[in-house]
Request: fold
Amino acid sequence: MAQYLGAKGFAVELRPDGKQGWDTYLKGGFDLLILDVMMPMKDGFTLAREIRQRDERTPIIFLTAKSMKQDTIQGFQSGADDYLTKPFSMEELLLRVSAVLRRAKGVTATKEEAREHLLGRFRFDVRKQVLIIDEQERKLTTKESDLLRLLCEHRNGLLTRNEALQQVWGDDNYFNGRSMDVYIAKLRKYLKDDPAVEVLNVHGKGFRLVARSEDE
Amino acid sequence: MAQYLGAKGFAVELRPDGKQGWDTYLKGGFDLLILDVMMPMKDGFTLAREIRQRDERTPIIFLTAKSMKQDTIQGFQSGADDYLTKPFSMEELLLRVSAVLRRAKGVTATKEEAREHLLGRFRFDVRKQVLIIDEQERKLTTKESDLLRLLCEHRNGLLTRNEALQQVWGDDNYFNGRSMDVYIAKLRKYLKDDPAVEVLNVHGKGFRLVARSEDE
DNA sequence: AACAAGCGTTAAAGAACGTTAAGTCACTAG
DNA sequence: CTAGTGACTTAACGTTCTTTAACGCTTGTT
Reply:
C-alpha cells in the first residue's frame, strides 16, 4: 500500500504498530491517516480516539478485516471518515483516499479560515494566536504568531531570513534582523516543552522548523 | 556467483570469510550484501547481526545449505531481506537480487529524502548533518556537511574543484577555493578517527574520497 | 636546480547568530 | 494626568560559523 500510494505521488510514512504510529503522528504535518484496526501495541480504534482528542480535522480511514456492522459503527464513532474492508483493490484504496482528501480540503477551505498547525505535542491556532500544549494555553503576540505561522508554512523546508523579514516586518534592514533573532529565541523558549520540535538555523540563509517523531 | 553477477553489470567484491567480509563492509558504499551462513572465522548470522547494529538499511541475502525452518527463522531475525537455499540456479539468484534491490530503492526513495552514507566505521546522516562513529556524534556545519555529501556522492571517483565550489559556494573564485581547502582540512581531522577513510587530493583537478578495507 | 602554481594547516579576523536585559513607545486604568 | 502594563526594539556580550592571512610543503614545468 505504501509503495503504491508513493508511486501515485503521495508522501507516505509507514509504521508497524499503533504506538509508533502515534509517535509519528505527533510530529505533525499529515493530511490523512490510514489505520489498521488490528495492530500490535495499540489497536486502530483506540489510536483514532486519542488522535481525535487533540485534532478534529485530520481525516482518518480505517482498514478492517471484520465486516461486522457492530465494528463499523464503533469505527465511525471514534471519528473515522471512511473505511475499507479487506480484501480491497489498490484502485479502491486510491478512490477513497482521493475522495476523503478532496472533502477535507473543501472543508478547511470553505468552513472557516481557521488555520491550525499541529506541531509535535503542540497545537497552534493561527487565528486565535494561541499555542496549546497539554491543555495549557499560551497567548502569542502578533509578531510571535506571524513568525511561527511562516515557520509552520515552511515546515521542514527553509524559511529565508529575507522572506520572514519582508512578511512580518515589511523591511529587511539590520535592526529588524536582530529583532527577529530575539523572536526566534522567544519561540524556542515556548517550544522547548516538546524536545521533538526544534527551530534550526541555517547559517547565512534562514531558519528551519522541524518536528521529528520520538524514536528518531 | 561473483563472476556471473559481474557479467550482469553489478560491481561485486568477493571475500573468503566472515571476518574479511566485515572489514570490507566497513569501507562502505555497498547496495546489497550476500552472506553465506557457513563461513570460516565468522558465520553469516553473526555477521548480519553485527551489521544491523550500525546499519538498518543495506539489504542482506543469505545463502544457506540447511533448509530447516529453524535456521531460516533465525536468519530473518538477524535482519535478512531474503534467502537462497543451495543448490540454486544463477537465474534464481539474479531474480532475488533484482527484487531486493528494487524494493530497497523504493523504500529509500519514498520514505523521505533521508540520505545516509556509510563510510568505514562512520555513519554520515545528511539530513541531520551529523557524523557518527562508535556511538559518538559530531554535529557538522552546513558547509562541512554539504562538502562531505558531495565527496560521498563521488566516492572513489573525482570531485572536481569547480563542481564543489559551484555546489557549495555558488562561485569558484580564488578565495572560495582557499576556503574550501580549509574545510577539506577540517573534514580530514574529523575523519582521521578511522584511518581507512581518506580524502585524497588530485593535483590541479580536485578531491577523491576513498574507504579501503582494513587489510588493504 | 629553479621557479610558479597548487595544496595543507594553523591562526586570526570577520560575520552571523543566541540570549538576556534594558530602553522606547503606545495604550490604559485609576 | 500619571503610573503601569504589554509589545516591540535596541544594546550588549558571548558563541559559532566562515573567510582571510600567513607560512611551509608538494607537484609539475622549464
